[in-house]
Amino acid sequence: MKRVLILLVSAALMAAALTGCGSGGEDALVSRTAFPEFDEVDMEGTAVTSEIFADYDATIVNFWNNGCGSCIAEMPELEELYQELQERNINLIGVGTDSGESREQLDTAREILREKGVTYINISPDPEGAFYQDFVAELSTYPTTYIVDRAGNIVGADIVGNVKKQLDTVEARLDLILAEQDT
Fold first, then answer.
1. Can you tell me the mean pLDDT for 103-130?
2. Is pTM beyond 0.85 here?
């Protein structure tokens, strides 16, 4: 009997944890962590800071590198998504993680972006800077994408792999952000 009671209590606790204990349902389970502040430059040397998030209702941040074939292959899809999202005041920016390592890497990144027809901002992080050392260098796979709200919070876990194949996840997080702004 005691064992059955323990199992029932455990099941009830698990159910409460998974439902957000009635305090918001699924939305309560979506984590929010601050995206690291950054003060970097884009591929052309123009300053880009984390203040860019405040200009949009949400921002999709896609991390890629020159040697990642799937990163490069998805760029035309990301460009198409970027064009579609502008109407909704949602931004998309890229971070060419290895573009700041040398002039050759920067030139390669620029050529990739040109060949793929990318017009959205792409940051070239300084490998000596805190943003690179504390965040970018910790990424273990590419492409990795984050959804960030206008307050600079990452909404949900990172999205690993091709974004278009995970559009349902992207849209659900964007809808959550936009719904919160409407309240």
1. 98
2. no
